[in-house]
Write a structure and sequence with these properties.
Blueprint (H helix, E strand, L loop, with lengths): L2 H20 L1 E3 L2 H25 L21 H20 L3 H16 L8 H13 L10 H8 L8 E3 L1 H22 L2 H4 L2 H9 L1 H6 L4 H7 L2 H21 L3 H21 L5 H7 L12 E5 L4 H13 L5 E5 L7 E4 L5 E3 L1 H9 L5 H29 L1
Parallel strand pairs: 3-4
Antiparallel strand pairs: 1-2, 3-5, 5-6
């Protein structure tokens, strides 16, 4: 390779690395993750807390350290550290001493995870990754006790901008979770063939029957054919989510598919805190730029009022600027970040899909509207050709 080629390649690599490390964006969506993750941490720690109330520590049962030098806290110290993690999780959600709470919560969850090999479960590792990610970015500048105290003290607004590389790393981790999990099951004959799924259904049959699930349905779900089809559907869904999240054109559909996937596995199987953490982490995929779309509302019709209220009160991640239009104008007009404008049902549904709490319910309607619009565009050229 010539020196000239190297001279051209080095700046390109350096510039790409600089953009990755120095890129800045609005990260207020991570504040939503911060608020949601506190209760999830407490749910994760609940079995350890229950045992601590009975005076049972990790050392009272069989445990297997990863390495001999790993520090093992004495019983009383461990109990104190455990309950301090509950306090820090509450403080993290409230945004009180946010950075300190984030660091301590992540540190204890990681310490407890690696205290014994028996503690390691993939859903706990996923939660730990999210917590570590929250320690790398400012997540207490807006919806927090810290921000409230700053405002009361007359301190300047710090804003919600931060480095983008932590959020990009979290996105990479989430894609890896789905893709690698799907691939590992795809090449595992017991998973792909349905054996693993069947064993889980068989193990939980007695509990399901006691809870009132019809016997005929339980008879169906333990058949070879059902489990083979169900396993393939689950594996392909995981792969579809992971691959779909990579590309912007398919990301919205992948996120909605992820909602259904987590709801389904939480109903059918017990996956501890994975579904809750993964659903909360969906906000990571929101574009980190604030107020880059304009919503113009006109008139005083019922739908217009609803749109105005929904955008102003449910736009927690700050996607839109709301403006009043001409009295006789269109009820709702959307001006996108590229300057293009749209109105009508499609624009309204688009806006609602960007409001986090409404996304799971509106995304299917928006997808159906886009499909219908595409079909209408395809029919128009054919109709015009027929007229000729």
């Amino acid at each position: 390779m010539s020196s000239v080629t190297l001279a051209h390649e080095r700046p390109g690599v350096a510039q790409a690395l600089t953009r990755f490390l120095d890129g800045v964006g609005d990260l207020r969506q991570l504040e939503l993750l911060r608020i949601a993750i506190g209760p999830i941490v407490i749910l994760h720690l609940w079995p350890f807390l229950q045992r601590s109330l009975d005076g049972i520590a990790y050392s009272d049962r069989f445990f297997q350290p990863y390495v001999s030098w790993y520090p093992e806290a004495p019983r009383e110290v461990y109990f104190v550290l455990l309950w301090l993690a509950v306090v820090s999780a509450v403080a993290l959600s409230a945004g009180a001493a946010t950075r300190l709470a984030a660091v301590y919560t992540a540190a204890f969850v990681a310490y407890n995870l690696f205290l014994s090999q028996l503690n390691f479960v993939h859903n706990r590792a996923f939660l730990c990754l999210l917590l570590v990610g929250l320690t790398l970015v400012p997540v207490g500048r807006r919806f927090s006790v810290d921000s409230l105290l700053r405002r009361r003290a007359g301190a300047p607004n710090l804003g919600s901008e931060g480095r983008l590389w932590p959020i990009l790393l979290l996105r990479f981790e989430i894609v890896c979770v789905f893709v690698l999990s799907g691939l590992s099951k795809l090449i595992d004959p017991d998973w792909w063939g349905g054996t693993v799924i069947m064993l889980r259904f068989v193990d939980g049959r007695a509990e399901a029957e006691a809870s009132g699930v019809p016997v005929w349905l339980l008879d169906v779900v333990v058949t070879d054919g059902f489990n083979s089809a169900f396993a393939k559907l689950a594996v392909l869904t995981e792969l579809a989510i992971g691959i779909g999240l990579i590309f912007k054109r398919t990301r919205l559909g992948a996120l909605w598919l992820e909602v259904g996937f987590h709801v389904a596995i939480e109903v059918v199987f017990s996956v501890q805190v994975f579904s809750y953490a993964a659903l909360a982490a969906m906000v990571i995929w929101i574009t980190p730029s604030a107020r880059d779309r304009l919503v113009i509302v006109c008139g005083d019709a019922r739908r217009t009022r609803l749109a105005r209220v929904a955008v102003r009160w449910l736009d927690w991640t700050g996607r839109f600027v709301v403006s009043e239009g001409e009295p006789n104008g269109r009820p709702l007009t959307l001006v996108d970040r590229d300057g293009r404008s749209s109105s009508g049902r499609t624009a309204g549904l688009f806006v609602l899909t960007r409001l986090p709490v409404l996304f799971p319910f509106v995304a299917p309607l928006y997808g159906a509207e886009l499909l219908a619009a595409r079909l209408r565009r395809r029919r128009r050229p054919r109709a015009a050709a027929g007229d000729e």
